[in-house]
Amino acid sequence: MSEAYLGKSLSNVGEKSGQIGWRSPSNIALIKYWGKHGNQLPQNPSISFTLSNAFTETIVKYATHSRGTIDIAFTFEGKANASFENRISAFLNKNISYFPFVNSLSLSIESNNSFPHSSGIASSASAMSALCLCMVSLEQHLTEAVFSQSEFLQKSSFLSRLASGSASRSVYPSASIWGQHSLAPGSSDLYAIAYEELHPIFATMHDDILIVSKAKKSVSSTAGHNLMKDNVFASARYEQARTRFSKLLPALQSGDLDLFGKILEDEALTLHALMMCSDPSYILIEPNTLALIQRIRAYRYEQKIPVYFTLDAGPNIHLLYPDDVRTQVQTFIQEELRQHCEDGRIIEDYIGTGPARIDSLTLTSS
Ligand code: PMV
Fold this sequence. Notes:
Elements: E1 17-31, E2 36-37, E3 41-42, E4 46-64, E5 71-76, E6 79-80, H1 82-94, E7 105-113, H2 123-142, H3 149-163, E8 175-178, E9 192-194, H4 200-203, E10 206-210, H5 221-227, H6 234-254, H7 257-276, H8 287-303, E11 308-311, E12 317-321, H9 326-337, E13 346-350, E14 356-358
Parallel strand pairs: 5-7
Antiparallel strand pairs: 1-4, 1-14, 2-3, 4-7, 4-8, 5-6, 8-9, 10-12, 10-13, 11-12
Helix pairs in contact: 2-3, 6-7
Bound molecules: (3R)-3-hydroxy-3-methyl-5-(phosphonooxy)pentanoic acid (PMV).
């Protein structure tokens, strides 16, 4: 238990009701978190770009009660969703010492995504960070807790980590580091920190998500992390991630796109290679993922344009490129890449400004 983040109870329950909402973005890991230990602690440091258009909106409607139990109802995209409701309930129950005030509340939680969930677009990152930002806002609003802006974000990141490791990185703008590393002062395995030393070339980075399939993943990230425990390459992988992290940070500071792109792609392929050599082995990429990878590499080689891919735990390609080559790359996408996407679907995204408070849902349920 981390004493610093223990939550406050409602001292005077009274009759209060209201609502609090957050929009929180997904993030794309450059160095991947894959393998954990203890209570959601990472086996290696990871670093990500915070996205903008791939986000979750969550509104928490609350009313006080004096029953002393958790009482939640959850809807996703306008419909009751028992599986998400159970996951949130289990998370709140397990971590009730961080949210004791929840025992005095009836919560009606409404959530919408701007993109397909459970298809490897880090939907748990945006969903769980949106939920935890709401919870820390609720604590601040209803109890005597007072947080500075940085304490607020750190606590939100800490709680998001407990729900889904990658979610810890979604609470900051631009780029975040989660996991202790000597080159990142202040970094911690307990929460993510903002990474503020990006070269300006990365401030304009696009991340177009080429949707190869929006089907639900056959193996969840939770199961995937667990399979790392017996993966014969596990310790070499964790060492490799630390070494790549040490090389990537200077590249992010100096704007070395070649080195950035090399590490980005190597990390994506390593992640999926680890899945393929888990026991049992499994494959989340699809024939169109490989077709896209081959085409992207050939185009970069032929045109000498800095455009690189990465993958999350799923078949969809994240295509990263700086804004100054957007005209050429967007033509390339239309003419050669879109045909490999399911229903031609692409989410045009870019590095974002981080989460924002919302008063009500702006997305309409489909
Ligand atoms: O946060 P989880 O448990 O869904 O794990 C996500 C892991 C990857 O998305 C594959 C990599 C990462 O660092 O985001």
